[in-house]
Amino acid sequence: MLIERDAEAVARGIAKLQAIFDGAVKRGKLTPEQAAARLAGVTGTTEYAALAGVDLVIEAVFEEIGVKRAVFAELGRVCRADAVLATNTSYLDPRLIAAGVPNPRRFLGLHFFSPANVMKLLEIVPVPDTAPAVLATGFALARLLGKIPVEAGICEGFIGNRILKRYRAAAEGLVRRGVAIAAVDAAMRAHGFAMGPFEAQDLGGLDIAFLQREGARQAGQAVPETLGDVLVRAGRKGQKTGGGWYDYAPGERRPQPSPAVAGLLSSQLAAAAPMAPEAIAQHLVGEMAAEGRAILHEGIARAPADIDLVEIHGYGYPRWRGGPMFETRDRG
């Protein structure tokens, strides 16, 4: 069951599912008959009342707490009293989202990673009121979907996005010190990542994290200006706008060093200071591990292995290195 805000959004959602199933057929993962059966099993509507008999609902709307609360107000009105209600939030405090939900024991966070049909990780985030049976339902759902579940405590970004935030900040810190953007990305590719931090931001869009920082600023939080903010304010949001940290020729995805970026950031960067690739990777992995240790100390993660699972299956950490906690286990 797919609920959207209007008929056009429903049509787009069904079309995206069609494209996913068609791709699976082309790759030999599904037969045409299996794909057609799966698509036929999806109903799209704008009416919340269609959810009256369901066992589980996962909200996945825009990361704005007012929007999410409005959705859960409707879910609380139409769903069964024992239906499990979950949020897919990646950053927001699920306790605040759940405020006012009838029977809050049935509420929890289920953070899927994009694209959800591909990525194996599922962060499961209970709130203090979450009933043990509801938490167990989250793990059972992960098994049913072939996901790797990791329980996470509540903090901004949970486990994975909190570490990602520090990783990106540390990468920007190297650039401020005079290390070239392309050198940072090349070092992390050499370490085993499919992309470096700046290439990955260009692919996903710089505006996503920018909007989260802007939301925090508007809420009165002291959030320092990042180099990424400078680029977004200049209209550089990544590949989708033809430029982010790099320039992209029309129709091309190959990153090219950007004179425009050099000009926009020149006042905030030190003189060029080359750094060995191994030293870059060691520094950034060390920053990730340091945030992981803080997460463990705060009880957000249960064990170092949980953090490594999150990084490998949610963020493309090279699995043969074991994850940042395993890789730095001898550094102290």
Automatic annotation (TrEMBL):
UniProt domain 3-hydroxyacyl-CoA dehydrogenase C-terminal: residue ranges: 157-248
GO molecular function: isomerase activity; lyase activity; NAD+ binding; oxidoreductase activity, acting on the CH-OH group of donors, NAD or NADP as acceptor
Pfam families: 3HCDH, 3HCDH_N
A GO biological-process term: fatty acid metabolic process
The keyword Transit peptide is assigned to this record: no
InterPro entries documented for this protein: 3-OHacyl-CoA_DH_NAD-bd (IPR006176), 3HC_DH_C (IPR006108), 6-PGluconate_DH-like_C_sf (IPR008927), NAD(P)-bd_dom_sf (IPR036291)
Span of domain 3-hydroxyacyl-CoA dehydrogenase NAD binding: 2-152
Assigned keywords, A-Z: Isomerase, Lyase, Multifunctional enzyme, Oxidoreductase
Name assigned to this protein: Fatty acid oxidation complex subunit alpha
Species whose genome carries this gene: bioreactor metagenome
